[in-house]
Design brief:
alpha+beta; 5-stranded mixed barrel
């Protein structure tokens, strides 16, 4: 289905056709001709660019993009392009590039979330987060902890098996 993960991509992939699957993190409709979508998967994130002058059937795709909620699962394909010099984001591994979208398909539409697990400053109190534990577990800090615990447990089990 996909050719790469978001975390695989870098400036060495410029001008390559790729196909990605991931969850929508946020959507920014800047004008009638320009839409940005932040896409994430388990390995990283990447900015998608839908631009009227460079995208066939832009009106149809814009309608789809405007209806996306955070955590909607999408399948996108397009060409990796270099971001303009003054619009790079050095804080992200993929901050030098973006995907110029040719096609987007919604695989699973998500209902609006009770809170966004990605904006640390806007997290609700612990009671609300526990009631929606499935969302709280999507926070990057908790994902890191879960993966670290898994690797630690695997290392201990491997050591015990070997000795």
């Amino acid at each position: 289905m996909r050719t790469h993960t978001c975390g695989d991509l870098n400036s060495g992939h410029v001008d390559q056709q790729v196909r990605l699957c991931g969850w929508v993190k946020n959507i920014r409709v800047l004008s009638e001709t320009l839409v940005f979508v932040h896409l994430r998967d388990a390995y990283g994130s990447l900015q998608l660019l839908a631009e009227h002058s460079r995208m066939p059937q832009f009106a149809e795709h814009k309608r789809v993009l405007e209806q996306l909620n955070p955590d909607t699962l999408v399948d996108v394909s397009g060409t990796i392009v270099r971001r303009p010099e003054n619009m790079t984001n050095d804080a992200e591994k993929t901050g030098q590039i973006e995907l110029l979208v040719d096609r987007i398909k919604v695989l699973n539409h998500a209902e609006p979330l009770p809170f966004s697990p990605y904006i640390k400053s806007k997290l609700p109190n612990e009671e609300v987060r526990l009631a929606h534990r499935y969302l709280d577990l999507r926070r990057p800090e908790l994902q890191y902890n879960i993966r670290l615990r898994s690797k630690t447990t695997s290392a201990i089990r491997q050591f015990m098996d070997d000795n």
